[in-house]
Amino acid sequence: AGAGGKSAILTALCIAFGCRAKNTQRAATLKDFIKTGCSDAAIAVDINNQGEDAFKPDIYGNLIKLERRITKSSSSTILKDQHGRKVAHRKDDLNEIVEHFNIDVENPCVIMSQDKSREFLHSGNDKDKFKVINFFSFPPIPLYQ
Q1: Total domain count, the chain
Q2: Quick one: 112 exposed, middle or buried, by C-beta within 10 A (0-12, 13-18, 19+)?
Q3: Domain check: are 87 and 136 in the same one?
Q4: Which residues form the signal peptide (predicted)?
Q5: 8 A C-beta contact, residue 12 and residue 21
């Protein structure tokens, strides 16, 4: 389905988790994501924080609320607990969560934009593409001749 906003959602998630605007290939700076006529943009993401892999559950509880706000002159990140109470706001705090949950939004094997996918699919030969994909696969996929 076209024009459903899937790429916009993916881009918003990347920005929320700390990706640089340039790396989204949709904007040069974060302020470029502010809708024309608006003074700011906001992204809110709720992260399930349950189970044995929970991040600081004694502080955040069962849900981590991530809010990213972008203005023409700055951007900020606020991390809240399951009740909406502010817990943290530093870039390092976000990085700690991203590393804990292994969310690598700048790795093209984790998230690849439509443009990058198109570029990859139309470049090189099939064996070269297979080598790239296989490099990141575990266990490696056998190549049948």
Answers
A1: 2
A2: middle
A3: no
A4: 1-21
A5: no
97 and 145 both lie in a single domain: no
Strand partners, 47: 64
Let me know whether 34 and 79 are in one domain.
Answer: yes
Residues 99 and 116 in one domain: no
Nearest to 107 by CA among 79, 135, 88, 126: 135
DSSP-derived 3-state class of residue 54? coil
Length, in residues, of the chain: 145
Interval 120-142: pLDDT, tens: 777 777 776 666 666 665 565 66
Cβ-based neighbours of 37, under 8 Å, separated by 6 or more: none
* Model pLDDT, residue 134: 64
Residue type, 97: I
The whole domain housing 30 covers 6-106
φ/ψ of residue 43, rounded to 5: -130, 130
More confident residue, 22 or 100: 100
Helix (H, G, I), strand (E, B) or coil at 66: strand
